[in-house]
C-alpha cells in the first residue's frame, strides 16, 4: 500500500458565521512526520483551523481531508478514531480526578470490552484495563510526571496541568497531534520543558505535530514548516526562518516593517 505523504489537506476552505468570515480560501498540506506550526495574531483563524480538522466546525465550502478521507460528514469521535488527538487553549481536564484517571480517559479509545464484561469485571475486562494502565504509565514516565500520578488536578500548578493535558492526548496513541497554545501562560522554564517534550514526541514517537502558539522563539526553534494567518487569510506558507523575514508577516504579526 502506498504511503500517504499528505496527512491533512486543506483545499480552499471557507468558514463563515453569519457575516463573519473566520477562514477565507485557506489551503495547505501537512506532510507526514512534520512539525507544522500555525501562527498569527489573536482572531486570525488559527483555532478555527483546528476545529475544522477535529470536526467541531464544518467548513462553509472547500474540503478537509485526513489520511485522504473527506471528513465533511464525520463526527469528532470518528475523526479521533482515525488517529487525531488534540489539546485545547484552555485546560479541559477533570479537576476532581487524579492525573492517572485523566490520562486513562485518553487510553479508553484502546479498550475493547462490553458493559456486561465490565459489570462482571471478567478476565477480558481486567486484561483490557491492564493494557490501558500500561499506556498511561508509559506516558507518565515519558513526560516526567511520576510524582503527580495520584494528585488531584485542582491541586496542581498550571504548567503541570498543561503537561497532563498533553499526556491525555498522547494516551490516544495519535498519528497526528494538534496542540493549541501548549505554552500559553507558562514561564520560561516551563516553556523550555514543553518545547523539549514536543520535540521528543515528534522525533522519538514519530507523531506528526501541528502546533499553534504565540511564543515566536519556540515556534521558530522547533517547527519544520509554518503558515501565518491574519484575519482568516493565509499570508505565508513555508520555512520558519523565511517567515521571520517576510514583509507581510512582519507587518501583521511581528510589528510594522521599517
UniProtKB/TrEMBL annotation:
Transport in keyword set: yes
Note the Pfam families from the entry.
Answer: ABC_tran
Which positions fall inside the ABC transporter domain? 8-256
Its keywords, alphabetically, are:
ATP-binding, Nucleotide-binding, Transport
One GO cellular component assignment for this chain's record is: plasma membrane
Q: Has UniProt tagged this entry with the keyword ATP-binding?
A: yes
The entry's protein name is ABC-type branched-chain amino acid transport systems, ATPase component
Q: Which InterPro entries match?
A: AAA+_ATPase (IPR003593), ABC_AA/LPS_Transport (IPR051120), ABC_transporter-like_ATP-bd (IPR003439), P-loop_NTPase (IPR027417)
Entry's CDD domains? ABC_Mj1267_LivG_branched (cd03219)
GO molecular function per UniProt:
ATP binding; ATP hydrolysis activity
